[in-house]
Amino acid sequence: MSAQPKQSLAVNPHRSIEGIYKAPGLHWVGDGFRVAGYFSVIPNAVRKLDPFLLLDYHPAYHYAPSEKPRGVGVHPHRGFETVTLAFQGSVAHHDSTGAGGVIGPGDVQWMTAASGILHKEYHEANFSRQGGTFQMAQLWVNLPKTHKMGSPRYQGIVAKDMGQVRLPHEAGLVRVVAGTFQGVKGPAMTHSPMSLLDIQLNEGGTVSLDFPAAFSLGMVVMAGDISINDSANATLHDFIVFERDGEHVLVNAKTKSQLLVMAGQPLNEPIVQYGPFVMNTEREIQEAFVDFQGGRFGYLED
Ligand code: MN
């Protein structure tokens, strides 16, 4: 008999921070989107953040009035989803399935390219004509192998339909786009388990984020200064990548803050990407080119 009971290994319920990354320099996508491409500065980002493939964040920027809407012309996608979140200003989208829509502040467009679409993305015409401040984010979400060649789908989700959780003690507001937070479900339909949250915290406000330890987790600080697990600090435009070693993250807002939080179950499937095509094998990328050049992504007028 041992004299003393074995000390149980204390499992740290907190997730560790893998890294806190500063925003890369801004670059233009077309002539309408002035973005920071965060995944380009995070080594092995698509593994650490699987199933997320890309985050282009467009910080607030003032555009002068323009009769010709700024944006990106017709281009293809296959094998994944583009998720566009408008925070200020309005974005218009049209695609080769005939789907299209305009999203404004607080709205989200969840576009499943799957087997292939052509689309164009522009500032909405009235917004463009008047000019104004524009702020948005676009996230690319990978599709499981079994859904890559499925049918395209467009979900236009307006702000009033988001899941909403008011945090106690006037700490702030959690808008649930996808997945659940404290039992409140977001409206977006996804192809694998994930959560996408827009979190607004008042100064001193605290939020506890709990996702399965196996989920990838990342967040971008869109406004303010925060502390994480009472041990690390992050500031405006930082992107925080977490390890998959715990369930719990505590965020405290040192100043009024806003976070975009993405969490998801990794697909753990091979990724072969060539520009706007994200598949599992080189051969499937070649097929994507053949299909695109053969007009099998449909037609969309410029
Ligand atoms: Mn696109």
Task: Report on this structure.
The structure is a single chain. The protein is mainly β. The chain has helices spanning 45-48, 125-130, 282-293; strands at 17-21, 27-29, 33-37, 52-63, 71-77, 80-88, 91-95, 100-103, 108-112, 117-123, 132-142, 153-157, 163-167, 172-178, 180-181, 184-185, 194-201, 206-210, 216-223, 226-228, 232-234, 239-242, 248-253, 257-264, 272-274, 277-279. The strands form 6 sheets. A 7-stranded antiparallel sheet has the order 1-22-19-24-17-14-13, with no helix packed on it. A 7-stranded antiparallel sheet has the order 2-3-4-11-6-9-12. A 4-stranded antiparallel sheet has the order 5-10-7-8. The relative contact order is 0.19. The mean pLDDT is 95. The structure holds manganese (II) ion. Manganese (II) ion binds at residues 75, 77, 82, 119, 121.
Topology, please?
Layout: E1 17-21, E2 27-29, E3 33-37, H1 45-48, E4 52-63, E5 71-77, E6 80-88, E7 91-95, E8 100-103, E9 108-112, E10 117-123, H2 125-130, E11 132-142, E12 153-157, E13 163-167, E14 172-178, E15 180-181, E16 184-185, E17 194-201, E18 206-210, E19 216-223, E20 226-228, E21 232-234, E22 239-242, E23 248-253, E24 257-264, E25 272-274, E26 277-279, H3 282-293
Antiparallel strand pairs: 1-22, 2-3, 3-4, 4-11, 5-10, 6-9, 6-11, 7-8, 7-10, 9-12, 13-14, 14-17, 15-16, 17-24, 18-23, 19-22, 19-24, 20-21, 20-23, 25-26
The chain binds manganese (II) ion.
Manganese (II) ion binds at residues 75, 77, 82, 119, 121.
